[in-house]
Amino acid sequence: MTDQQNSVPVNTATSSQEESIFFFGSLALPILLYALAFAIFLFKNARGIGVFFFAVSSVLLLQKTRKVYQKAASKSILLLYCLSLAVGLSTFLTDNTAIIILNFIALFLLIVSILLLSFANTTGWDFGDYLKEVFLTALLSVGYIGKPTSDMKAYLEREKNKGKSKTRYVILGILLSVPLVVILAALLSSADLVFARLLAKIFHFNAADVFLFLLLFFFGLYSAYCGIRYVADKDNDFAKPGHPLREPLPVIILSVSISLLYLLFSLVQFLYLFAGGLQLPSGITYADYARKGFFQLLLVCILNLLFVLLVKKKFQKSRMLDILLLTISCCTFVMIASSALRMYLYIRAYQLTFLRVFVLVALFTLTVLFVGVIIKILHERFDLLRFGVAAIGILYCLFAFSHSEYFIARYNLTHPGVSGEIDTYYLLYNMSADAAPAIVALHQKAVGSSESSPYQESQYEEDRYGTDPYREDRYQENLRPSYEDPAEEMDPEPTWYQDYTERILRKVSAMEGSPFTFNVSIAIAGHVLR
User: Fold this and answer.
1) Alpha carbon distance 292, 54 (integer Å)
2) pLDDT value at residue 282
3) What's the whole-number mean pLDDT along residues 433-458?
4) Which residues pair with 246 in a beta bridge?
């Protein structure tokens, strides 16, 4: 990732005051408009089309910043722009809460990455340098919280002396009007019920909403201003990855030991697991085999990646060391395959969950990253950071667009597993609107062929009212959508399908409150369920 150009701001003054004036005069108004868009599009909205508009606003502000500082166009920046828009687009196409949370994390990382790539010379950076600068940017930009006020003061003082420009009046007008109009509207609403109902029909605001809107506005204002100000202030003054390389002999000895151990493990996998017809020894269940081996292997694969990257960064180049690192990397492929096979056995026995699908995607991503690592070992000049960011971004976007819960529901309803039972509790309480088309199609097919099994319904009642019916994979307990069940008591003798339908239709009703909360997946689910 070496797309940073040796460019300077239009204003070449070196004093701190002139830098403040230049930044405020060039970007204060765009940042104000961005903060307003931030509040409007994200107000009570985490999964609607407003999130896509927020991503568009972020891209426009970042592009404006690059234009102000005369940064040349690059393919890497264009890719990150496209990934940002894709993440925003996928948010209002899905109802999967875990994906939505990951999307917001991805948007943050992409925005910071665009800023870093625009202002920092990333030549020689690895993943460690990149993650360190992302963390420092998020942390140290808080120290710039006083910059908007001091920059505005310096800018207005200069404009006052010039006595010509009207920009300061526009900025002052926006700064005063947004909070003042919102507060006055709240006060007038509390004074007149007719006026309150009129505003409620138009904006759906109350006192708590006013506070939330202002909080979003000022958070968007200060986070954007301080973040961009911090990175622009440092410009090309980021930490340069330069350090004396160490003698490789100790790590060669360590790598020999690790390689021999990994070769032995790989041999066992080939002789027993891969060539053994997937037959487990007597007394070992699928659950025990997968649980006791999968997570350990996944951890070892991640440690291998960190080890190889650390050795390449800290130690002198050695042909013997490169051979050993290649051996470790190739053995890691065997471990990844073994992990995936164990997860396959577990899924075949105990069905799919979102976490299990996510883990398989993570294993595939690790495989792609190790391909890049091998290329880096063989070709020293290969830009592994650029490759890794692009690979992770593209693979994640594909996963976010995949509607994995549709395939999970379809698989689980047609593959009961070793127990012979369908886990209706998981379908009811963990499946989002993404799964509705599959659930409806298979339910209609089942209704058309035969009545529901009495045993299955009684099993559902046990699941519904039991203390802990779904003893596994409670990872989504804190990730469930924020749609609360109504206070009235539900039908005392429901089917799991009826309960699922009621839950999704409540989401449809909640979505209709604002045009920015429109979600494609929820709309489709409402259509097929009705």
Assistant:
1) 43
2) 67
3) 68
4) 315
pTM of the model: 0.80
Which structure tokens are listed for 461? 């009642």
CA dist 4 and 70 (Å) reads 11
Q: How far apart are the first and last CA of the chain?
A: 50
For 429, phi then psi, to 5°, come to -100, -10
What sign results for the dihedral spanned by CA atoms 389, 390, 396, 401?
A: positive
What H or E segment, with its residue span, contains residue 337? Answer: helix 319-350
DSSP string, 21-86: HHHHHHHHHHHHHHHHHHHHHHTT-SSSHHHHHHHHHHHHHHHHHHHHTTPPP-HHHHHHHHHHHH
Q: Count of CB atoms within 10 A of residue 252's CB?
A: 17
- CA gap 365, 525 in Å, rounded: 30
| CB 38 within 8 Å of CB 217 | yes
Alpha-carbon distance of 58 to 44, in angstroms, equals 19
> What's the Cα-to-Cα distance from 114 to each of 51, 108, 128, 336, rounded to whole Å?
19, 10, 17, 32
Residues whose CB falls within 8 Å of the CB of residue 401, separated by 6 or more in sequence, listed in order: 86, 90, 93, 94
* Structure token digits, residue 73: 């166009």
Residue 484, class by beta-carbon neighbours within 10 Å (0-12 exposed, 13-18 middle, 19+ buried)?
A: exposed
pLDDT, the chain, mean: 81
pLDDT digits (tens, 9 = 90+) for 11-50: 444 467 888 889 998 999 899 999 999 999 999 899 999 9
Q: pLDDT tens-digit profile of 290-315?
A: 666 777 888 899 999 999 999 988 88
Tokens representing 308 are 């190889």
Nearest-angstrom CA–CA distance, 410 and 370: 32
Q: Look up residue 355 and give its two tokens.
A: 């976490």
